[in-house]
């Protein structure tokens, strides 16, 4: 198969390889045990492989799809050795992800038709939401875009302070009010300011509460409605940030937030400190929502645009 060709720069690829090292080494440890003493991919090996994929947080539904594809490959090729299993996995997972429109991008870009392009960021507290916003601001600014941040997570003073730190660090303007202010009011002021400044990108932080889905839905709906008084089709993107190190819990958060609001893209963070990187494969396949960004380190450059071919290539390298 011709899925794999050089897309990322050498430096970016090395960062991705390093960020996925824990996930990769844990996966291959399990895989080597699954095929120990076997020379041929048979039913026992496939059963063991299924267990390896599920325990690597790929998710049950996606695992079953992968196993089905490998079964078909084994049936066609008649004899498939266990020494070929890594390459087959790599090809079949890339093929599976190619069937959905996820992870095709390579650069930090925005559609030219939206000026400014408004991104509303959602996610529970602690997933790296504000840090992701800061890194996005850095990357968009580096790409030559004029960025404005909006601190609409007014539920916690710490969230406003943290976003201010990122605004200072990246040298982009921020619109904020005091803790307890109406989030929709902050969003309105941010968009008005962005229009006046001829900004290219607006990134709005929102509160990360999920204990009451109805309240969350009402709040996010109100924020959207008020934004549209300034820019009729805003927000152009609703980005859900998920903590990759939580594995299956990230799936659950994705379910909850997609039920509460219309999520259009995903960012999966903290992949460098975990062995649960397989969650990106499952989330990419299951939610029909593109994984747009992945966090593979703590540095400003370590938020990367997710490209499924580069990711699978690094994971199975």
From TrEMBL:
Q: Could you say which enzyme class this protein belongs to?
A: hydrolase
Q: Which HAMAP family does the record associate with it?
A: FtsY
Origin species: Cochleicola gelatinilyticus
Q: Which GO terms describe its biological process?
A: SRP-dependent cotranslational protein targeting to membrane
SRP54-type proteins GTP-binding domain location: 290-303
**Any one GO molecular function term:** signal recognition particle binding
As for family, the record states: Belongs to the GTP-binding SRP family. FtsY subfamily.
Report what the protein is called: Signal recognition particle receptor FtsY
Q: Which residues bind GTP?
A: 123-130, 205-209, 269-272
Q: Which UniProt keywords apply?
A: Cell membrane, Cytoplasm, GTP-binding, Hydrolase, Membrane, Nucleotide-binding, Receptor
List where in the cell it is found.
Cell membrane; Cytoplasm
Task: Summarize subunit and interaction data from the UniProt record for this chain.
Answer: Part of the signal recognition particle protein translocation system, which is composed of SRP and FtsY.
